[in-house]
Design a protein that fits this description.
The complex is a heterodimer of chains A (215) and B (218). Chain A is built from eight helices and no strands. Chain A has one domain: Orthogonal Bundle (MetI-like fold), CATH 1.10.3720.10. Chain A is mostly helical. In chain B, helix 1 runs antiparallel to helix 2, helix 1 runs antiparallel to helix 8 and helix 4 packs antiparallel against helix 7. The radius of gyration of chain B is 21 Å and the shape is elongated. Chain B has one domain: MetI-like (MetI-like fold), CATH 1.10.3720. The chains are: A mainly alpha (215), B mainly alpha (218). At the A-B interface, helix 3, helix 7 and helix 8 of A face helix 2, helix 3, helix 8 and helix 9 of B.
């Protein structure tokens, strides 16, 4: 193993890891927004919203994220959407993971006992009040762990934006593999950084999960 | 530049061929990952520590890093040690290994949840440990995890788009080929997405049938 080379190039990998972290955080935020809206749509009383929500989940989960990114980044300009690679990456991946998060959030909400809704409505709460005061506080702790799984997948998924030339960890690894012919070393460098990011995120999710359960 | 889907039919044969390759690489990788998953599960649970521990490290590394990165490692790494595999084979190895690790996690849990009495009974009637695993434990374990393995296979289909970056001329790369000629990315990527969606629906139908049959066999 060429440790000398690894020591020489690792600062570039650290920089790239920072880009991966930014991508992950922004994608998580967009994913959570899309997921919440998606879940609200899927649970709506109006059939039109339910259908829209179902189509969103089915289409996004039924096609590769890479193709979705390509449609947005390369095809976007044809329909008047001009985004740079980083923006396209964040929006594309966010909308993608949002479909998975839709199902996670919806799953947690519908797993709250039906009697809770019935009781709240009997006491005279409106549908919205019931959701906000009774259902969501019980559903939220249930979501944390599965959303953590979504976020774990999302962090690894950020590698896809290498294909639209965002200079993040995988792109950097690929570039250095090409120029140094040391695939194993470059894989190890970037791999360790991914694992650190994923490990820390996992600990954060576990901490939140514990916190939520105590209340 | 507006949208013009009339350019699509001229390239339909390229796209269809790409779709066939996507199906081929998905099926090949699915088979590799199914048996690889069983093999990895047995190694992770029963191999001597000298094999088990390095293997655990490998599995851990493969679960914690992106598939795209692993594909680069396999494709360029094999070339470096003098093995020049066709891109298709490298793609199958990459996808197959990646999903073997994920399947192995499922199968390990399933093996551990098979009733202890099954192993004891098998040993009592004279089967060796290996025979008991192969003929009694693993079939029961695998049967229990067919649905989640099916979900992994759906994920595999979508992730097969990634092998376009190492030059396998499947659906995504075929779309790119057509785009290179026409400069109409939106149209051809949407067409590719439609094909993926259709293949996805077909695959879900097949998986549901398998699940039903496994359920019936129980």
């Amino acid at each position: 193993m060429d440790t000398e080379l690894m020591l020489k190039v690792y600062p570039f990998f650290l920089q790239a890891a920072w880009v991966t972290i930014q991508l992950s955080i922004l994608t998580t935020i967009i994913g959570l927004i899309c997921g919440s809206l998606g879940a609200a749509a899927r649970l709506s009383r109006l059939a039109i919203f339910r259908t829209l929500g179902a189509v969103y989940v089915s289409v996004i989960r039924g096609t590769p994220a890479l193709i979705q990114l390509f449609i947005l980044y390369f095809g976007g300009p044809q329909i008047g959407i001009q985004l740079d690679a980083f923006e396209a990456g964040v929006i594309g991946l966010g909308v993608n993971i949002g479909a998975y998060m839709t199902e996670t959030i919806r799953g947690a909400i519908i797993s709250v006992d039906k009697g809770q809704t019935e009781a709240a409505r009997t006491l005279g709460m409106s549908g919205l009040q019931t959701m906000r005061r009774i259902i969501l506080p019980q559903a939220a702790p249930l979501m944390i762990r599965p959303l953590g799984v979504n976020i774990n997948a999302l962090i690894k998924g950020t590698a896809l934006v290498a294909a639209i030339s965002v200079i993040e960890l995988t792109y950097t690894a690929q570039r250095y593999i090409g120029s140094t012919y040391k695939p194993f070393e470059m894989f190890l460098l970037s791999g360790v950084l991914y694992m650190i990011i994923i490990y820390i995120t996992g600990r954060g999710v576990a901490w939140l999960d514990r916190k939520a359960r105590i209340v | 530049m507006g949208l013009d889907f009339t350019v699509v039919p001229k390239f339909m044969d390229v796209i269809l061929l790409g779709a066939l390759w996507t199906i081929a690489i998905t099926v090949a990788s699915a088979v590799v990952s199914f048996f690889g998953g069983i093999l990895f599960a047995v190694i992770a649970l029963y191999a001597p520590a000298l094999v088990r521990l390095p293997f655990r490290a490998f599995a851990w590394l493969f679960m914690g890093t992106p598939l795209l990165l692993q594909l680069f490692l396999i494709y360029f790494g094999l070339v470096q040690i003098g093995i020049d595999l066709p891109a298709f084979v490298a793609g199958v190895i990459g996808l197959g290994l990646h999903f073997s690790v994920y399947n192995s996690e499922l199968i390990q849990a399933a093996i551990l949840s098979v009733d202890k009495g099954q192993m004891e009974a098998a040993r009592t009637v004279g089967l060796s440990r290996g025979q008991a695993l192969r003929k009694v434990i693993i079939p029961q374990a695998v049967r229990d995890v067919i649905p989640p393995i099916g979900n992994n296979m759906i994920a595999l289909l979508k992730d097969s788009a990634l092998v376009s970056v190492i030059g396998v001329s499947e659906l995504t790369l075929s779309a790119q080929l057509a785009i290179g000629r026409t400069y109409r990315p939106f149209e051809f990527y949407v067409v590719a997405a439609v094909f993926y969606y259709i293949i996805n629906l077909g695959m879900e139908a097949v998986l549901r049938r398998i699940e039903r049959r496994v359920q019936a066999a129980k």
